[in-house]
């Protein structure tokens, strides 16, 4: 049965196999997932290519014209005659350009925070699950304590501490990194828990024992053997975390402890915009808020869909 | 045996199965230990197949895990070619290379995310035996040795059937050119039709490479087909060791007889089969004296008090008091 030579003349290409996979099929038949991906891709694409797409660099004072201040959307400005698709803010910045740049900051902070949380969570989870015993208990108690604090509180705490350490002249440059660490620190527990649980299942499987018999290094077993087998749920959490991290960043920036005003994110734009809401300049608030909503919703829907698609019990 | 390859002496393994510390303090309980193996001693000669048989829970797999260093013994020694290998992580690589293991479940023993070529060449790479290109070629060659195609190196394990996967697992075990392979129930997860193929492959490889096997099984027909010597385990203790074929014709220990009586025969000889009576006792609180005495038809007073030591029998050794009194 097994001795016959295996002809397989032409292996199907990698791209074709990806298109033909179960996951791709589930994707093609889920309109919500397709729509969410489209929206997310448009926003992410806009953010990535902001310097080429935006009509102006809203943070270069030389390009601003104060006369354009408070120009409503799609109406020519009374003095300069310029028209803005989404209007202009109090300093005459084009809202669309500002949003593109703001989304860039938001996405960067969100993605880096999730990456940081992922690396930390995966490492802690793998180590705790692999070692078991008191190491596991100690690490997971730390995680439990961490989980008892709301994410915003941890972020504010980190932010406050960092503020005390960082000299004034570096504060603006480092603010983004402090924000990333703050959001990442409040988010790693989920990764650690999922990875720990899966590691405890995987480490008793015989392929891990086979690697131990030949004396493979534990770090190699953890990262080369176990990690690829626990990445499925990790990617799902990462997607959902990305939406949450973007919202967390917006919340912190809205509270004024986020990114510096020279590099505004969507949260900063919303904070600025809400002060003009009462006076009737609604576009300064509405468009950044809608962008944040669309981004968070589409990424979240994508994460939810991915979770269901990868869950064997829901197949 | 003058120069055994593997020598196991007084091997004992206890597992701590106590409740957590707080529960013990509150409920005023002592620590509890499960003795999986007690005082097991045997030798495996070069080129032979030594089989360990026993019911579920008799400690067969625990011995296998201790021999390959997955578990540390609580007491006793394991010697491989004159060198101790029970030191845990301290086994030198040059020694580790010389023994390998084949596992029970071929669906769990191959990493589902790795390609077959990577799986087979992992021992080669870990021991640094060859460079990457040679290791890849070697993986293909080994696949052919075990009856698969060299083109299969690029496939994933899920593309193979159970028997084919077990062949891949065997190829992986062979890749570090070992002398000794521990086989933990290598066929019990396979279809009966495939079992014979795998067993025959294992025998062919033994002849070709001069391998020594420690075969763990609960299937007496597999053991009979494969082994030169057999050890019978009961509740973690070795009750009888005997020459392969002789054990089936002249069993000495009453437990061995009970096991053999329960085996169905295809010849439909009309022999009345006696089912195995009773169940293996709880290893946390084993019976006093000979652990088999509650189920033994020959038991007498001494069996309840004294743990029997192995005695010479015409076909090997057996640990039974009845042998002294000629009741057996």
Descriptive overview:
- The complex is a heterodimer of chains A (315) and B (328).
- With 315 residues, chain A is mainly alpha-helical.
- Helix content of chain A is 70%, strand content 0%.
- Chain A has 13 helices and no strands.
- Chain A has helices spanning 14-20, 22-28, 31-48, 50-53, 95-131, 133-148, 151-165, 168-185, 188-202, 206-213, 218-254, 266-274, 283-310.
- The mean pLDDT of chain A is 86.
- With 328 residues, chain B is of the alpha/beta class.
- Chain B is 31% helix and 21% strand.
- In chain B, strands 6-7-8-3-9-10-12-11 form an eight-stranded mixed sheet, with helices on both faces. In chain B, strands 2-1-4-5 form a four-stranded antiparallel sheet, with helices on one face.
- In chain B, helix 7 links the parallel strand 7 and strand 8 (212-217).
- The mean pLDDT of chain B is 88.
Tally of DSSP helical segments of chain A:
13
Outline of chain B, from the CA principal axes?
globular
Alpha-carbon Rg of chain A, integer: 24 Å
Estimated radius of gyration of chain B: 21 Å
How many DSSP-defined strands of chain A?
0
How many domain regions of chain A?
A: 1
Number of helices of chain B: 11
Secondary-structure-based class of chain A equals: mainly alpha
Helical percent range of chain B?
Answer: 25-40%
């Amino acid at each position: 049965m097994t001795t016959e030579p295996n002809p397989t003349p032409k292996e199907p290409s990698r791209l074709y196999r990806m298109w033909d996979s179960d996951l791709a099929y589930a994707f093609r038949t889920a309109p919500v997932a397709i729509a969410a991906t489209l929206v997310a891709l448009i926003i992410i694409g806009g953010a990535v290519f902001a310097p080429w797409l935006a009509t102006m660099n809203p943070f270069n004072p030389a390009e601003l014209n104060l006369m354009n201040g408070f120009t409503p959307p799609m109406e020519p400005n009374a003095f300069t005659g310029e028209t803005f698709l989404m209007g202009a803010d109090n300093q005459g910045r084009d809202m669309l350009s500002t949003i593109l740049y703001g989304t860039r900051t938001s996405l960067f902070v969100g993605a880096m925070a999730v990456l940081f949380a992922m690396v930390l969570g995966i490492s802690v989870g793998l180590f705790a699950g692999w070692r078991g015993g008191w190491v596991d208990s100690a690490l997971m108690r730390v995680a439990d304590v961490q989980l008892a604090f709301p994410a915003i509180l941890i972020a504010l705490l980190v932010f406050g501490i960092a503020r005390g350490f960082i000299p004034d002249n570096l504060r603006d440059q480092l603010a983004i990194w402090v924000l990333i660490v703050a959001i990442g620190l409040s988010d790693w527990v989920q990764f650690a828990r999922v990875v720990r649980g899966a590691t405890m299942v995987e480490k008793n499987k015989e392929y891990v024992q086979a690697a131990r018999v030949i004396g493979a290094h534990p770090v190699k077993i953890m990262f080369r053997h176990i990690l690829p087998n626990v990445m499925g749920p990790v990617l799902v959490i990462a997607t959902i975390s990305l939406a949450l991290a973007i919202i967390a960043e917006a919340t912190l920036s809205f509270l004024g402890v986020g990114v510096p005003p020279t590099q505004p994110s969507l949260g900063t734009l919303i904070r600025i915009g809400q002060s003009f809401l009462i006076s009737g300049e609604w576009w300064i608030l509405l468009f950044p808020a809608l962008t944040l909503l669309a981004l968070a919703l589409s990424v979240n829907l994508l994460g939810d869909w991915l979770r269901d698609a990868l869950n064997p019990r829901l197949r | 045996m003058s120069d055994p390859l593997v020598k196991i002496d007084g091997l004992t393994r206890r597992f701590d199965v106590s409740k957590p510390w707080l529960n013990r303090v509150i409920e005023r309980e002592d620590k509890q230990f499960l003795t999986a193996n007690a005082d097991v001693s045997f030798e495996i000669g070069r080129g032979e197949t030594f089989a360990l048989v026993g019911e579920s829970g008799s400690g067969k797999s625990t011995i296998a895990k201790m021999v390959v260093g997955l578990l540390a013994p609580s007491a006793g020694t394991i010697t491989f070619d004159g060198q101790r290998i029970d030191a845990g992580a301290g086994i030198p690589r040059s020694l580790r290379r010389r023994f390998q293991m084949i596992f029970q479940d071929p669906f769990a023993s191959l990493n589902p995310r790795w390609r077959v070529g990577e799986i087979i060449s992992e021992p080669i790479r870990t021991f640094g035996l060859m460079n990457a290109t040679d290791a890849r070629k070697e993986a293909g060659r080994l696949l052919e040795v075990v009856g698969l195609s060299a083109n299969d190196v690029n496939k994933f394990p899920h593309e193979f059937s159970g028997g084919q996967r077990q062949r891949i697992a065997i190829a992986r075990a062979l890749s570090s050119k070992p002398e000794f392979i521990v086989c933990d129930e290598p066929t019990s997860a396979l279809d009966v039709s495939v079992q014979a193929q795998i067993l025959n492959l294992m025998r062919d490889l033994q002849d070709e490479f001069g391998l020594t096997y420690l075969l763990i099984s609960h299937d007496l027909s597999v053991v009979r087909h494969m082994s030169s010597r057999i050890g019978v385990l009961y509740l973690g203790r070795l009750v009888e060791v005997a020459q392969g074929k002789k054990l089936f014709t002249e069993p000495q220990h009453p437990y061995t007889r009970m096991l053999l009586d329960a085996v169905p025969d295809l010849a439909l000889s009309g022999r009345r089969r006696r089912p195995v009576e009773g169940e293996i006792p709880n290893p946390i609180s084993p019976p006093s004296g000979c652990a088999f005495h509650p189920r033994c038809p020959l038991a007498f007073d001494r069996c309840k008090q004294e743990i029997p030591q192995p005695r010479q029998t015409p076909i090997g050794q057996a640990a039974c008091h009845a042998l002294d009194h000629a009741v057996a």
